[in-house]
Amino acid sequence: IYYEDIEIGSTQSFGRYVVTREEVVEFAAKYDPQPFHLSDEAAAKTYFGRLSASGWNTCAMTMRMLVDNMSTVQQAGMGSPGLDNLRWVKPVYPGDTLTATSQVIGLKE
């Protein structure tokens, strides 16, 4: 895929990532050690109601799906200009299966 091939408004769905309790706890212990990411008992007392993945862990899982997709869809460019807006609108729990969808909202050379 080259710049000229990209169309504004185009979408692509890809990836399948199964979230495991072990990964949630391991990531949290290393990078985001808040109690609701580490302990079932602590999480039960919060808004989440049960152990939930760190938002940053969710970002890492999404990055994995993006990179895996790059190996199946040949692309001429690498890298990204970054993110302008990131929100975690729904908790991610062990046992959830994540997928990704991208949409081209603009082009910049």
What is shown here, in short?
The chain is α+β, with helices and mostly antiparallel strands. Helix content is 35%, strand content 14%.
Query: What structural category arises from helix and sheet content?
Result: alpha+beta
**In terms of per-residue confidence, which ranges show pLDDT below 50 for 5 or more consecutive residues?**
none
> How much helix, percentage-wise, in residues?
25-40%
Shape: elongated
The main β sheet shows up as: 2 strands, antiparallel
**Taking all residues together, what is the mean pLDDT?**
92
**CA-based gyration radius:** 17 Å
Number of strands: 2
- Quaternary structure of the protein: single chain
Keywords, separated by commas or semicolons:
single chain, 109 residues, alpha+beta, two-stranded antiparallel ribbon, 4 helices, 14% strand, elongated
Description:
This protein has about 110 residues and is α+β, with helices and mostly antiparallel strands. Helices cover about 35% and strands about 15% of the residues. Strands 1-2 form a two-stranded antiparallel ribbon. The chain has helices at about 20-30, 35-40, 40-45, 55-70, and strands at about 10-20, 95-105.
